Amino acid sequence: MDGSLIYCDPPNPNAGAIATIHARVLNFGDQVETNVVVAFYQYAIQPGSEMGRVALTNALVSQGTNDVSFTFLVPDSGASLTVFAVVDPDQTVPDVSR
Questions:
Q1: Rounded to whole angstroms, how far apart are CA atoms 57 and 80?
Q2: Are 19 and 37 in contact (CB under 8 A)?
Q3: pLDDT tens digits for the chain (98 residues)?
Q4: What is the DSSP string of the chain?
Q5: I need a labelling partner for 45 at 20 to 30 A (CA). Which of 35, 37, 70, 88 fits?
């Protein structure tokens, strides 16, 4: 995940608004990956805080990038919402460093 390329549209949405998170996924490996999943979490990366998942629609080529977006209803929690994006949350793609 490219931390410099994750953003919300609209920025700072109000509670009850529809918002979309955009992120860029990176593949530092030497193999093409398909069916890569990105999970979005609110406040903490744990099963109970998962907001949803998106599968990349295109293959993620070696040394390449792919953009993903996730639309959600902003909760009325009275506090700022922190969102985390995790690539391959079930660790189905082996980590390879060559």
A1: 30
A2: no
A3: 667 788 999 998 999 999 999 999 999 888 899 999 999 999 899 989 999 999 998 999 999 999 999 999 998 887 888 899 999 999 988 776 54
A4: --GGGEEEESSSPPTT-EEEEEEEEE--SSS-B-S-EEEEEESSSSGGGEEEEEE-SS-B-TT-EEEEEEEEEPP--SSPPPEEEEESTT--SPP---
A5: 35
